[in-house]
Every structure is written in C-alpha cells, then in structure tokens.
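Q: Sequence in, structure out?
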Amino acid sequence: MPRTRSAFLKAPWRIEIREVDLPDTPPPGHLLLTVEACGICGTDLTAAKQNRDWGPVGHEIAGTIAALGPACPPHLSVGMRVALESSSFCGHCRTCRDGRSDLCNRGPNFWSQAALGIGEYMITPACAAVPCADLDAAVACQAEPTGVAIDLVRTAGISLGERVAIVGPGPIGLSAVALARRSGAVRLLMVGCARHRERLAFAAGLGAETIATDRPLAEEKALHRQFDHVLVTAPTATIAPALSLLDTGGRLTYLGIGTGDGMISFDANDFHYRKLQLRASFASPALYLPMALDLLRQDIIPGRRLAAHEFDLAHTAEAFAHCADPAAGALKVVIRPRR
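A: Exactly. Output:
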C-alpha cells in the first residue's frame, strides 16, 4: 500500500504533515498522481484563519501520472504531466444535456480524497486531468486559478470598447487584468490597498491604471460612475461601495468564498434607477482548463512571473505565512513537494 506525506490544515494557522495510506491500485476511473506543484489559494488562507480543522489541503495542482486505475480515458498514460480540474461536470444530468454543464453540481471531484495537492501523491478522478507536458509544473498548477479568472471575465461579459475596474490585486484579479485587456477594454483600472503596492505595480505592467487607497470606495469621488464593469475579487464588504463606480447600465461581477459574513446592503432605488446588474462568478465545475493552459503557454497569463515564491512540503506553514504577509510581496506561492 503506497504512503504519502500530505499537508493537513488544523486550527488557526496550524499545518501538520501527516503520512496517509493510499490504495494499492487507483479505483476505476481514477489515477494516482505524483504531485509536482500546488499553488496556495486565497480560499486556503481564509480557511487557515478559522478556528476549525479542515483536513487535507491544496487544489491548484499539477503533477505526473504514477498509475492508472481501470476504465481511465485512453489518452492518459503513466508518466504524463497533467493539470487538474478541481471539479468536473457529470455529462449526464438534465442540466448538462441542456447545454449548461457550467451549472452541474453532480460531477466527480477530488475533494473527498484522503490526501490533496499539498503532498507527495494523491488520488483523483481521471476526467479531471488535462495534459500539459510542455509547461513547468509551477506554471501548469496555475491553470485552476486562471480558469477562475476566465469564468469571472466571461460572466461579466466584457465587450470591445468598455471601461473596466478591478477591485482586489490578488492573483485572480491580476489575471483578470490580462484577460479584460484582451477582451477589448479601453480603460482598465486596478484598485488595491496601499499595502499591496507590489501587486499594483504588477498590474501596471499588465497595462492597467492603478490606484492605491485605504479609503472606502464610496469616498473615491473621482471614480464614481466611470465604469461599465466592476470586477470584485475582494471581501464581500467591498461589493456595496463598489457599485458607486458603475455608470448607468453597469455590471458588478463578484467572486469570493468566506471573505466576510456574507451579508451586504445597498440602496435598491439607486440600483433600480441606474439599471445596474449584480452577477456572481463561481467556477465550479472548473471549466476552461485547456484554454487556461493555452493562456499560460502564451504568457498572456504570466505564470512564471506570478509564481516567484516556492517552498518545499516541510515548509508549508512558512509558505502560508509568507502568502498572507503583504510585506513579503508574494503574488502566487507554490509548494513543490520534492523541491
């Protein structure tokens, strides 16, 4: 029976490296992955703050196929490097068959496995694996968050000639800058806190105007009613004041899990008379992975520059602390279990 060392998230900011038994042979339709790289996500940091145990951690994953169980897709083979979708669609339910696989919540995923991506090995549904032999693993593991950024921009529906503001200069927000620019935005602004000046400088390098402010957006009068789209990748409390940035008919598109108490309030009359829209982006199932890998290959999403900070498995707790510290200037922090 193979064993793996894997990271487990405990009570606030505690990481344990445990040994986990895995099956001798992957179950039907599953494969054993040798993990080469796994990114730390903002959702992981949110979980780390909370006073409860989360179990195994890591869902931005690239690695090499170590073994295939029965009934795996024929295009996969042992030794192949792949990136993983965090969840897939089933292909059989009414939603899928009506052409809305993006709304399916019945598909296979790896979340219930005994070990996840911050570890040496893991079991995953084979349908989640997308070949990426030509990419370094630290770049390929960013296909999952890149797919999240694609879903954000597609949900917003940005068109040629529109004005776009992005609030929150994390890795997904920065990727959204690159995608919105390619979608034809004629004005592109990244808004962040003063402590994120390095991230704002990165956004400027991608072609965005930037503003560093610790004031509520409702007080940034010069930005009010200046944008057709606002993309929010910041805590939920940002949503209501960010509506002030929208021109008549504008759309605010939000993504984020666990970044506040989940409750917001705003002036419904103002929302009505200005004909605003509020949209939610939730990239589950994790569509667009082949597209995301192509964007990384072409450096449209600059994965190598984003993933400038790498740690080995034994230093996972340090990696989490580094990722959470604005003074460290990290963009995307990647764990290489065998570094």
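The longest helix spans residues 143-156.
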